[in-house]
Q: What sequence folds into this?
């Protein structure tokens, strides 16, 4: 597997790795990128779909059981009042962030390598945020009253308390979901129209035609479209930074040792991007292989993502270091106890050391070009980082809560079967949605790759003219 | 009764040149259709700048301002809550929701503005009557002219002269 990936770029070691292999024509690109949509459903896809949709079924069961019985079926209880629900919420939201980073921030920085992976990453964002939303919605205890979270004139005569970070979260996460959805859908329009126009069957033509909304590549539309897309990217950029900052306020605004730190917002954002890029790699590596997208998602993309992971991994490590420094520098007894005793030697110490291994040590491998270009190393490292970022949230939430100020109120937290079922269920739901996306929507934006090809042609011309 | 005349060109430059030529000849309802945005086609068709940024700005101001006023009215006026001794109207605490709402409403305005300006959703359009037009979102570069029926032949003739293939005419129902 490693050979096929390096074949493309090892033809001449002095030539830089291309962001697009060859110069495929427009029709050729469409044929290649739409193939997963038009070809027969594959056995492998069906097998994966069977697994993920069964797990999604488990999610439905576990959620129904939780709602019908009450959240006492979860393992969390005072003092560990937040556990799997918030860990998974933060983990999923964090994963979503790389999608927005790739599609919005890298667009503004005109990073060409974003073009072939942005659709993929945005879909990941959407589906991850959907999973994330399940957790706080259930954690309210009575999810049928969740509409109380929104400010609407009610007969109760009450308004939400906008000085609470939890209220900020409601606005941040819902805004994030809606804006990501609009950004993704607007980006899809030209490809949906191309799907409508390349469809062989009437049903597909009608279905894609409805979603394409009547897009006909009109110059009168393109001029609004391009600026709208750019503006959405522009406002998504501060949005993505704000969302995880707001999520971190849920913790940082409290007084608990392990939560009460000013480093939290940037450290959370870096962690989010770190885990998100890991998830993109975890998903994109098998997908490009299966669909034969190696010419569009080249080793250059994978290598760049590895570099981003290295950089954000270092930021996360710096966050850990600074947390510990602050605990020591504050001279606060409770802070020191948490950071220099409970974490390393407490009952959950293995989770802490696993976090250090996965998030601090593993990304260091990407200093080596060989590691950045080896498919297997990338894939395994990306999974380890996903694990590491999950354990980080466990460390922050459970370890901080289970040893607070009063030893008499210390207690352990153990997840129940329902906790695990919901978590594994969201993985299944995420996988299900992602597989449906891969099957019915082109996972690489054909219209943007066509534009990229023109830009590259233009540049090659300019270079030849010199 | 308006008719549509369509012609397909080999590449972007030819399409732009043809658009410019037809506009000089006095054809008004011109449009270009292409799988990617074409550099220079806006000038060729004489299109003005898009108002989408302004619409977005209005949305952002309405969203942000509205959210701040909402929080102030709800938490400081209508049902004043004392949280940790902070003032009822606590600007720093109101910033996150103000910002998020500004972003949300701006996005809704941008996307809504795009849809309204482009007339989406419009599932049927006379240009879709031409089967060959199905390349417009794939690899074809099309010029369309909405003309009065008597001038349709002249437009078609001109397009053919400029090197268009698949020149077709759709006689509009309502247009």
A:
């Amino acid at each position: 597997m490693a050979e096929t990936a390096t074949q493309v770029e090892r033809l001449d070691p002095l030539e830089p790795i291309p962001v697009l292999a060859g110069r495929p024509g427009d029709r050729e690109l469409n044929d290649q990128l739409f193939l997963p949509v038009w070809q027969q459903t594959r056995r492998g896809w069906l097998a994966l779909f069977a697994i993920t949709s069964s797990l999604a079924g488990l999610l439905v069961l576990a959620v129904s059981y939780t709602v019908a019985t009450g959240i006492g079926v979860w393992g969390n209880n005072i003092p560990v009042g937040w556990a799997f629900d918030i860990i998974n919420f933060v983990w999923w939201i964090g994963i979503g962030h790389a999608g927005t980073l790739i599609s919005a921030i890298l667009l503004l920085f005109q990073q060409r390598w974003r073009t072939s992976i942005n659709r993929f990453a945005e879909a990941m964002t959407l589906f991850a945020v959907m999973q994330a939303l399940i957790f706080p919605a259930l954690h309210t205890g009575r999810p049928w009253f969740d509409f109380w979270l929104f400010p609407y004139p009610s007969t109760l005569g009450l308004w939400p308390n906008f000085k609470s970070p939890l209220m900020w979260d409601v606005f941040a996460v819902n805004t994030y979901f809606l804006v990501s959805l609009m950004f993704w859908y607007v980006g899809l329009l030209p490809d949906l129209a191309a799907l409508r126009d390349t469809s062989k069957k009437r049903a597909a033509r009608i279905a894609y035609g409805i979603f394409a909304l009547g897009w006909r590549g009109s110059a009168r539309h393109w001029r609004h479209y391009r600026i709208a897309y750019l503006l959405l990217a522009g406002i998504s950029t501060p949005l993505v930074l704000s969302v995880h900052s707001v999520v971190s306020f849920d913790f940082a605004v409290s007084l608990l040792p392990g939560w009460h730190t000013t480093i939290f917002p940037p450290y959370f954002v870096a962690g989010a991007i770190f885990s998100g890029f890991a998830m993109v790699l975890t998903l994109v590596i098998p997908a490009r292989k299966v669909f034969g997208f190696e010419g569009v998602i080249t080793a250059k993309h994978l290598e760049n993502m590895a570099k981003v992971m290295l950089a954000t991994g270092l930021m996360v490590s710096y966050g850990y270091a600074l947390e510990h420094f602050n605990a020591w520098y504050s001279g606060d007894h409770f802070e020191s106890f948490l950071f220099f005793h409970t974490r390393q030697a407490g009952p959950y110490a293995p989770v802490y050391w696993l976090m250090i291994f996965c998030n601090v040590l593993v990304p260091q491998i990407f200093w080596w070009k060989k590691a950045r270009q080896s498919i297997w190393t990338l894939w395994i490292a990306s999974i380890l980082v996903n694990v590491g970022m999950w354990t980080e949230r466990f460390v922050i939430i459970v370890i901080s809560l289970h040893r607070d100020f009063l030893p008499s109120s210390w207690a352990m937290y153990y997840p129940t079967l329902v906790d695990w079922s919901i978590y594994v269920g969201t993985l299944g739901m995420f996988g299900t949605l992602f597989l449906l996306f891969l099957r019915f929507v082109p996972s690489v934006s054909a219209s943007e790759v066509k534009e990229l090809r023109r830009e590259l042609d233009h540049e090659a011309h300019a270079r030849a003219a010199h | 009764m308006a008719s549509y005349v369509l012609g397909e060109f080999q590449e972007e430059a030819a399409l732009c040149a043809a658009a410019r030529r037809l506009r000089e000849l006095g054809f008004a309802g011109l449009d270009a259709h292409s799988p990617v945005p074409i550099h220079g086609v806006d000038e060729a068709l004489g299109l003005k700048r898009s108002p989408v940024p302004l619409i977005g700005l209005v949305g952002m101001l309405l969203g942000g301002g509205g959210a701040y006023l909402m929080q102030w009215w709800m938490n400081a006026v209508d049902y004043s809550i004392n949280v940790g001794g902070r003032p009822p109207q606590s600007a720093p605490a109101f910033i996150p929701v103000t910002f998020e709402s500004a972003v949300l409403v701006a996005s809704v305005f941008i996307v809504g503005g795009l849809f309204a300006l482009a007339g989406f959703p419009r599932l049927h359009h006379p240009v879709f009557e031409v089967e060959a037009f199905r390349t417009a979102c794939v690899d074809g570069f099309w010029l369309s002219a909405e003309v009065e029926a008597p001038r349709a032949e002249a437009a078609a003739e001109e397009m053919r002269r400029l090197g268009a293939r698949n020149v077709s005419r759709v006689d509009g129902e309502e247009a």
